[in-house]
C-alpha cells in the first residue's frame, strides 16, 4: 500500500500545499472534520494582529487595518467556494447564531406558515435552533426522514432546513432537487454547509438556494471556534429581517441613534462587535483554500477516500461503511459503524492517528484534501488494521470517556 | 502640572502594573473605553494557543487544554469584579447576543407582561436588541428619561434594561435603588456593565440584580471584538429559558440527541462552539484586572479623572463637562461637549493623544486605571490646551469623517 500511496502523492497536483500547514510530528490527521489544521501563515498573521494592529494601532485599526470591513471581506472570499456572488456572504457569529437569524428571517417572509422542516439526526444545533424559535411560539419543528422530505413539504412549511453533508454519514443531499421541491411547495430553503464549505463543490446561486450557513473551523481552517458564515440570495436582500438586530447590523452604527435601521444587504446579519482575532485567523484559512480552488480540492478528496477504501480491502479490514459508497454522493469523509467505535478511535489517537468518534457507534475519518496525503491514508489504514487485529482498543484507558468526545 | 503628575505617579500603588501593558511609543491612550490596551502577556498566550494548543494539540485540546471549560473559567474570573458568585457568570458571544438571550429569558419569566423599559440614548445595541424582540411580537419597547424611570415602572413592565455607566456621559445609575424599584413593580432587571466591569465596583449579588451582560474588550482588555459575558442570579438558574438554544448550551452536547435539554446553571447561555482564540486573549486581560483588584482600580480611576479636571483648571481650559462632577457618580471617564468634538479628537490623535468622539458632539476621555499614569493625564491636557489655543483642529484633514468614528 505504501509504495502505491507514495506514487499517488508524487503525482498529486496539490502536494505542494501540504507544506503550508503546520502538521504536528507523528500525527496523521484524519479528523472528519471537527477542526482543520493550522495554516503556517496563521501564526504570523495572529502575531501581527495582536502586536501590531491591536497593540500598536489600538482603536485606530478599525479604520487603518480595516477591521470594520473584515466580516464582508472574509465573506467575499468564502462566496466563490460555495457558488455564491461575492456580496451575498458575510462572516460573523457562530453557525448556531446564524441559523437562528435565518430561520427567523424565513419565518417572517412566510406569514401564515410556521413549520420548519428538517430531518431527525440532523446536526443537533440545527434542530435546537428551530426548537428555540418553537419555544418562542414562532416556529413549529417538523422532522421527516430524508427519503420522506419531499412528501412532508406541505402548505404549512415556511422553511426547509437541511445540512448538505451529513456530519455522521457524509451523505450529500441533492441541493438542486430539494431546493426546487421546497420552492414548488412555497417554502424557502436554508442549507447548512458546515461539512461542505472548502471540501466539496456547492452551487448556492446555481441551485436557487435562499439561505445558507456554515462553519469556519472545519475545512476552512479558521481555528477552534472560528466565526461562521451566512449567505442570503441577492433577491432576498431588501426584504430580509432578522431579530438579532445589534448595532453592527445598523445602516449607520456610529450615528448612535435610538432606532434600528438595517444595513443594506448581508451587512444586516451583523449583530455585535466583530471578533477580530477569530476573523483574522479565518481569513488566512479561507485564503489558502480559495487559492487551491474547490474543484481541485474536491477531486483530491474523492481520490483520498476511495484510496482509503482500497487500502481497507487490501488489508482485509471489514468494517460496516455507513457513508455512501459512491464518492459523488458523500462529503470528504468516510464513516463506519462499530459498537466499540469510541475505544477504537482512542486507540488510534494513541498511535497518532486522529479520526473522530460520533456517539454512539460511529468512527469517522475525514480527508481534508489541502493537506492529507495518500501516505497518511495508507498508514492510517495500517494502524487501524493493527488496532483491530491486536484488540488493543480493549484496554481500559481507551474506554474511559473524556468530557469532549 | 508635570511635576505634580510625576509625584502622583511615584506614589501610585498601581504604578508597577503599567509595565504589564504594551503601550505604544508616543501614544497617550485615553480611549474611553472602546478598546483596552494589549497586555504584554497576551502575545505569548496567543502564540501558545495558536502554535501549541491548535497547531500541535488539534482537536485533542478540547480536553487536554480544557477548551471546553474556557467560557465558565473566564466567567468565574470576571464574577468577583462585578460582585457575583463564581458560578453565575459565563463568557460567550457578544454583548448584543447576550442581551437578546436575557431579555427573552426575562420576558418568558413574566408572562402577561411585554414591556421592556429602558432610557432613550442608552447604548444603541441595547435598544436595538429590544427592538429585535419587538419585531418578533414578543416585546414592547418603552423608553423613559432617566429621571422618570421609576414612574414608568408599571404593571406591564417585564424587564428594566439599563446600562450601569452611560457610554457617553459616564453617569452611573444607582443599581441598588433601581433594582429595588423594579422588583417592587414586579419587574426583573438586566444591567449592561460594558463600561463598568474592570473600572468601577459593581455589586450584582449585593443589589439583588437579576441579570447582567458586559463587554470583554474595554476595561477587561480582551482585545478587539473580545467575547462578552453574561450573569444570571443564582435564584433564576433553574427557571432560565433563553431562545438561542445551541448545542453547546445542551446538558450533554456530545450525546447528539435531537431534543434540547438545557445545561445546568449559566452553561445554558452557551450557544455555538466557543471562540477559543478570543476567549484565551480575554482570559489574560481578565486575570490581570483580577490580580490588581477592583477597589484599587476604582480608587485610581477617580484620582486620575479628578486630576484631569485639576489640570484643565490650571491650564485655563474651559470645556462643558457632561459627566457628573462627583467622581462617585461617574464611571472611569470624563466627557465634554463641543460642537467641533470630532475635529478636536482627530487633532489630538495626530499628536498621539487618543481619546474618542461620540456622535454628534462628545469628546470622551477614559482613564483605564491599570495602565494610565498621572503624567499621561497632565500631558494630554497640555496637548488639548494647545489644540484649542492654536485652532489646529480646524485643518481639513481633521474634519473628514472616517468609516469608524
Automatic annotation (TrEMBL), chains A, B:
Pfam families in alphabetical order: KYNU_C
Enzyme class at the top of the EC tree: hydrolase
Catalyses which reaction(s): 3-hydroxy-L-kynurenine + H2O = 3-hydroxyanthranilate + L-alanine + H(+); L-kynurenine + H2O = anthranilate + L-alanine + H(+)
Gene3D superfamilies reported in the protein's UniProt record: Aspartate Aminotransferase, domain 1 (3.90.1150.10), Type I PLP-dependent aspartate aminotransferase-like (Major domain) (3.40.640.10)
GO terms for MF: kynureninase activity; pyridoxal phosphate binding
Transmembrane segments: none
Cofactor(s) needed for function: pyridoxal 5'-phosphate
GO terms under biological process: anthranilate metabolic process; L-kynurenine catabolic process; L-tryptophan catabolic process to kynurenine; NAD+ biosynthetic process; quinolinate biosynthetic process
Enzyme Commission number(s): 3.7.1.3
Signal peptide: none
Residues modified to N6-(pyridoxal phosphate)lysine: 218
Keywords, alphabetical: Hydrolase, Pyridine nucleotide biosynthesis, Pyridoxal phosphate
Listed InterPro entries: Kynureninase, PyrdxlP-dep_Trfase, PyrdxlP-dep_Trfase_major, PyrdxlP-dep_Trfase_small
GO cellular component terms listed in the entry, alphabetical order: cytoplasm
NCBIfam families in alphabetical order: kynureninase
Known partners and oligomeric status: Homodimer.
Function, as annotated: Catalyzes the cleavage of L-kynurenine (L-Kyn) and L-3-hydroxykynurenine (L-3OHKyn) into anthranilic acid (AA) and 3-hydroxyanthranilic acid (3-OHAA), respectively.
UniProt record similarity statement: Belongs to the kynureninase family.
Official protein name in the record: Kynureninase
Amino acid at each position: 500500500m505504501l509504495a502505491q500511496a507514495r506514487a499517488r502523492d508524487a503525482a498529486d497536483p496539490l502536494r505542494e500545499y501540504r507544506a503550508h500547514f503546520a502538521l504536528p510530528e507523528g500525527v496523521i490527521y484524519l479528523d472528519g472534520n471537527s477542526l482543520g489544521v493550522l495554516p503556517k501563515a496563521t501564526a504570523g498573521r495572529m502575531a501581527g494582529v495582536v502586536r501590531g494592529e491591536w497593540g500598536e494601532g489600538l482603536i485606530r485599526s478599525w479604520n487603518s487595518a480595516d477591521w470594520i470591513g473584515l466580516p464582508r471581506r472574509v465573506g467575499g472570499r468564502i462566496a466563490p467556494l460555495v457558488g455564491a456572488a461575492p456580496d451575498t456572504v458575510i462572516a460573523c457569529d457562530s453557525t448556531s447564531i446564524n441559523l437562528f437569524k435565518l430561520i427567523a428571517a424565513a419565518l417572517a417572509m412566510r406569514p401564515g406558515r410556521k413549520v420548519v422542516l428538517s430531518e431527525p439526526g440532523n446536526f443537533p444545533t440545527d434542530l435546537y435552533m428551530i426548537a428555540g424559535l418553537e419555544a418562542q411560539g414562532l416556529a413549529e419543528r417538523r422532522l421527516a426522514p430524508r427519503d420522506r422530505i419531499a412528501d412532508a413539504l406541505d402548505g404549512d412549511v415556511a422553511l426547509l432546513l437541511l445540512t448538505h453533508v451529513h456530519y455522521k454519514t457524509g451523505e450529500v443531499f441533492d441541493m438542486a432537487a430539494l431546493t426546487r421541491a421546497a420552492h414548488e411547495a412555497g417554502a424557502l430553503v436554508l442549507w447548512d454547509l458546515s461539512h461542505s464549505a472548502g471540501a466539496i463543490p456547492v452551487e448556492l446561486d446555481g441551485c436557487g438556494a435562499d439561505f445558507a450557513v456554515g462553519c469556519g473551523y472545519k475545512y476552512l481552517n479558521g481555528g477552534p471556534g472560528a466565526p461562521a458564515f451566512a449567505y442570503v440570495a441577492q433577491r432576498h436582500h431588501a426584504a430580509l429581517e432578522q431579530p438579532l438586530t445589534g448595532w453592527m447590523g445598523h445602516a449607520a452604527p456610529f450615528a448612535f441613534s435610538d432606532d434600528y435601521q438595517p444595513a443594506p444587504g448581508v451587512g444586516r446579519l451583523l449583530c455585535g462587535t466583530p471578533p477580530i482575532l477569530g476573523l483574522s485567523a479565518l481569513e488566512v484559512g479561507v485564503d489558502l483554500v480559495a487559492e487551491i480552488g474547490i474543484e481541485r480540492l474536491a477531486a483530491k478528496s474523492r481520490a483520498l477516500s476511495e484510496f482509503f477504501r482500497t487500502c481497507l480491502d487490501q488489508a482485509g479490514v471489514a468494517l460496516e461503511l455507513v457513508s455512501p459508497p459512491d464518492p459523488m454522493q458523500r462529503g470528504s469523509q468516510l464513516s463506519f459503524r462499530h459498537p466499540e467505535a469510541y475505544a477504537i478511535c482512542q486507540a488510534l489517537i494513541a498511535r497518532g492517528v486522529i479520526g473522530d468518534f460520533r456517539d454512539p457507534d460511529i468512527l469517522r475519518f475525514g480527508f481534508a484534501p489541502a493537506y492529507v496525503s495518500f501516505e497518511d491514508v495508507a498508514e492510517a489504514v495500517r494502524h487501524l488494521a493493527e488496532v483491530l487485529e491486536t484488540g488493543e482498543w480493549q484496554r481500559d484507558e481507551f474506554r474511559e470517556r473524556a468530557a469532549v468526545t
